[in-house]
User: Fold this.
Amino acid sequence: MRKSVMELVRNKIEIQSRGVSVGKGLLSEMIKLFNVPWAGGTCLLFEISAGHSSKTSLACFTFITDRTPFKVKRDAEEWFIEKGGRRYVTLRFSPRPEFYGLTTGRGRAVREFITLGEYGSVRCSVSNRCRYIEAGKGCGFCAHQAWWNEGDGDTVDEIAREMPGILNEVGPDRIFLNSGTANSRDKGILLLSEAAGKIKNNTSVPVIAGFEAVRDTGFLETLKAGGVDAVYINLEAFDPGLRKSVMPNAKGQIPLSQYARNWHWCAELFGHGNVYTTAIAGLGESDESLFDFARAALDAGAFPVLLPFTPIVGARSAGFHPPSPARMEHLYIGISRIYSRYGMEPFFNDVLGRSGDAFGALKEVHEYLS
Ligand code: SF4
Assistant:
């Protein structure tokens, strides 16, 4: 059993590092039936398992590309990924939720800003605006450019209006809120806080908000007041030179000390274990810089998470190559050992729990491979 889980973890790492191809006909069929695609039609979210009757499955988010050995296929019984003409893993998709068919009063598709996430979580974008994208200086790894071209403006009231029906339909175990970086000192935190407050009028489901580090840490308290339960404040890249090149905007200039201050404050406000931060592997960094990132985050009270770079269609760095599966496994094992050295068990937290499981394989490596 343990061996088959370890193989499946490696399958997941490989699929995330290489992406999958899908024929146009199959994609149209999937869109009608399932919770796909994601991020403006560029990514897929599914669960992989070793076979139809396998009890173990892992959530997996990956991108659609032609440059991959993995092909999504189906036969009369199941969907699967094929590699080199052989069946590689079996796929399970969540059914397409009914709320994907809804439009708002101003004619906007609800699924443009509320999406069904991994394991039945719900992910909401409270604003489709990002000051960096508007200035033509989006982050190189940005997953939102194509997605957010579909709509515009703030969606707090629309989220509040739709959420009771979505809570009823989906029954999520957590709700994620994110936003582009607003052109204001709070960087969108006030909108996140307002949205959390309106959602919390109807439910006690944990709300997790993501944002860029702010200079004025007083804004962080408004999140707590709004009812946010946990936060993610993603560093993305650790090395200062690399930060400036992959984030050719104000985000790339924010010093690590500002992030550390935000992580520390949030750990005080929301509790240790309710703050996390992500770095992306495959932007041109060294392995050691990612291990430095993990230590810096833990020193300041945040849990470090690592994701492979995904060359999302339409992003500035769509031509970059994602990191190799072997490198990702090595990095995950290294960060898992850092967790152990700090005496941390990051993945058994009530609020964050399985959050973000689909987007990387650190948790599985921590559990099975290290
Ligand atoms: S801050 Fe960067 S990653 Fe986030 S939406 Fe803006 S450009 Fe994209």
About this structure: The radius of gyration is 19 Å. The first helix runs from residue 2 to 18.
